[in-house]
Automatic annotation (TrEMBL):
InterPro entries in alphabetical order: ADH-like_C, ADH-like_N, ADH_Zn_CS, ER, GroES-like_sf, NAD(P)-bd_dom_sf
Record flagged with keyword Metal-binding: yes
Disordered: annotated segments: 1-20
Family: Belongs to the zinc-containing alcohol dehydrogenase family.
Keywords of this entry: Metal-binding, Oxidoreductase, Zinc
Highest taxon of the lineage: Bacteria
Domain Enoyl reductase (ER): start-end pairs: 8-343
Named cofactor requirement(s): Zn(2+)
Organism: Streptomyces beihaiensis
Pfam families listed in its UniProt record: ADH_N, ADH_zinc_N
Keyword Oxidoreductase: yes
Protein name (database record): Alcohol dehydrogenase catalytic domain-containing protein
Length: 357
């Protein structure tokens, strides 16, 4: 088969790789139908995630068909169409029993495209298949479901739930890429007074507006003043960092009100200055974390009911074999307008741009 293989910072290629085999009785083999490219994949290519070894097939999000299962797998069977979660979980360790699957101490956590071969290939081995694969309703398109493998549960859990968004809150989202846009959409589920989206790309803040942002700013240098103006000088109740850069994190700390909550989603590849000389007396809560995907079943039900704007985030589609071109388009989002890219599926062209509506 073929897969998209990481060879070191700045180097990856679509090439022949060995077919995956069952290694544990809890494994399943999935024929990949639809995948997507994540901002975390770009961080890996930049060298920001050094534990990813050269030779690893990238990707941690997919929809596909189960073709083989280990002897201990009970929840799925060959022929099932499934969502491949970005997180695998043993289900037995202390953290899994608490629903904190991203911290799994039993061999799970973020494995695919990280510690083992991932989903950007024709087939993928999924560890702990019973808890890591989600059978899909026929009412959910594969191209929509794949966005629930990572970005929607990440934005919802690590951003909105960790930030404890409540009715009447002012929520500021710094970064209107796919994760930030999913945070805008899911924060709206809690009826905040206003959502403010900040991103230097005008197309992205316009997308945020269409997904529910009440105010937008494409000039980050004045965004803290905008938040202050809209809140009577207090600052935002909740600030969600969805970029993963030192300057964006520091901007978030300037936006937060005393007693507020800062939820960091972004993947940081460099040290960040934490200005405790300014924050120590403000009673600010800062949260970090890897997604646990405990919310995936709930989000799938919402998607099936038409309650999540998944398809609105997809701007480009490619055949799976054009994964290198897809990476190029996604990495140059400021020029291409790319939000979320989908590869594979039944309805694709080499490049399709779909406006967010």
């Amino acid at each position: 088969m073929k897969g998209f293989v990481f060879h070191g910072p700045g180097q990856a290629s679509w090439q022949d790789v060995p077919d995956p085999d069952l290694k544990e009785p809890t494994d399943a083999i999935v024929k990949v139908g639809v995948v997507t490219v994540c901002g975390t994949d770009l961080h890996i290519l930049k060298g920001d995630v050094p534990e990813v070894r050269p030779g690893t097939v990238l990707g941690h999000e997919a929809v596909g068909e189960v073709v083989e299962t280990g002897s201990d797998v009970r929840g799925v069977r060959p022929g099932d169409r499934v969502l491949v979660s970005c997180i695998t979980s043993c289900g037995r360790c202390r953290f899994c029993r608490e629903g904190r699957y991203g911290l799994c101490a039993g061999g799970g956590g973020w494995n695919l495209g990280h510690r083992c071969d991932g989903t950007q290939a024709e087939y993928v081995r999924v560890p702990f298949a019973d808890l890591s694969l989600h059978p899909l309703s026929s009412t959910v398109r594969s191209e929509d479901a794949v966005l629930l493998a990572d970005i929607f549960p990440t934005a919802y859990e690590v951003g909105v739930l960790n930030g404890r968004v409540r009715p009447g809150d002012t929520v500021a989202v710094v970064g209107a890429g796919p994760i930030g846009l999913a945070a805008v959409a899911t924060a709206g589920l809690f009826s905040p007074e206003r959502i403010i989206a900040v991103d230097p790309a005008p197309a992205r803040v316009e997308a945020a507006r269409k997904l529910g942002a009440d105010a937008v700013c494409d000039a980050p240098e004045v965004s803290a003043q905008l938040v202050a103006d809209l809140t009577g000088g207090l600052g935002a109740d909740v600030v969600i960092e969805a970029v993963g850069r030192p300057d964006s994190f520091e901007l978030c700390t300037r936006m937060i009100r005393p007693g507020g909550r800062l939820a960091n989603i972004g993947v940081h590849g460099r040290p960040v200055m934490l200005h405790l000389e300014d924050l120590w007396a403000k009673d600010v809560t800062i949260t970090t974390g890897l997604v646990d995907t405990f919310s995936t079943p709930t989000l799938l039900r919402m998607a099936a009911a038409g309650r999540l704007p998944t398809g609105q985030l997809v701007t480009h589609t490619f055949p799976l074999t054009a994964v290198q071109e897809a990476y190029d388009v996604f990495s140059q989002a400021a020029e291409t307008g790319a939000l979320k890219i989908v590869l594979g599926g039944e309805h694709h062209t080499d490049v399709t741009t779909v406006p967010v509506a």
